[in-house]
Amino acid sequence: MNHQSKLASFIKSVKNLKSILTETETQIVRDAAIKRYELCYELAWKSVQEALRAEGLEICKSPKSCFKEAFKQSWIADEEAWAEMIQNRNLTTHTYDEDLAEEIYDSLGKYLSLFEYLLAQLQAQSQTLVQRI
């Protein structure tokens, strides 16, 4: 999957997360929102990885290293909030309980804002690349 198609998938996943967060909270909505968050997270770091490659940089192989580089590139602004999100993403992968699900669900609005900011930065970076061609 190339840079543009990864970015398009990330755009769609952010829209889907935003959409589910407008629904009335039920256990099913909460669980679906968490799954959409996990997908956004995966597409976010992979989009960063592709954007860095497009810039001629192949320097990250993991979510944590990609997000650190995104911070260096000013594609993300709140490194501490991203660190929290990384930690919570790791928890959703290995553990599932009601309290954790509620805690993460309650953070999804903040995480959505982080994804939207990153997305705007990646779209601007993509436009810059197109203009160079």
Task: Give a structural overview.
- This protein has 133 residues and is mainly α.
- Helix 1 (3-20) packs antiparallel against helix 2 (27-54), helix 1 (3-20) runs antiparallel to helix 5 and helix 3 packs antiparallel against helix 4.
- It has one domain: Four Helix Bundle (Hemerythrin (Met), subunit A).
- The protein has helices at 3-20, 27-54, 63-72, 79-94, 98-132.
- The protein is 80% helix and 0% strand.
- The model has no long low-confidence stretch (mean pLDDT 90).
- The chain contains five helices and no strands.
Taken in chain order, the helices and strands follow as HHHHH
For CATH, the homologous superfamily is named as: Nucleotidyltransferases  domain 2
Share in β-strands? under 5%
* Shape estimate: globular
Structural class: mainly alpha
Strand count, sense and closure of the main sheet? none
Radius of gyration from the CA trace? Answer: 15 Å
The number of helical runs is: 5
Overall tally of structural domains: 1
How far is the N terminus from the C terminus? 20 Å
CATH architecture: Up-down Bundle
Tell me the layout of helices and strands.
Elements: H1 3-20, H2 27-54, H3 63-72, H4 79-94, H5 98-132
Helix pairs in contact: 1-2, 1-5, 2-3, 2-5, 3-4, 4-5
Features:
133 residues; mainly alpha; Four Helix Bundle (Hemerythrin (Met), subunit A); 80% helix; single chain; 5 helices
Task: Summarize, please.
This protein has one domain (3-132): Nucleotidyltransferases  domain 2 (Four Helix Bundle (Hemerythrin (Met), subunit A), Up-down Bundle), CATH 1.20.120. The protein is 80% helix and 0% strand.
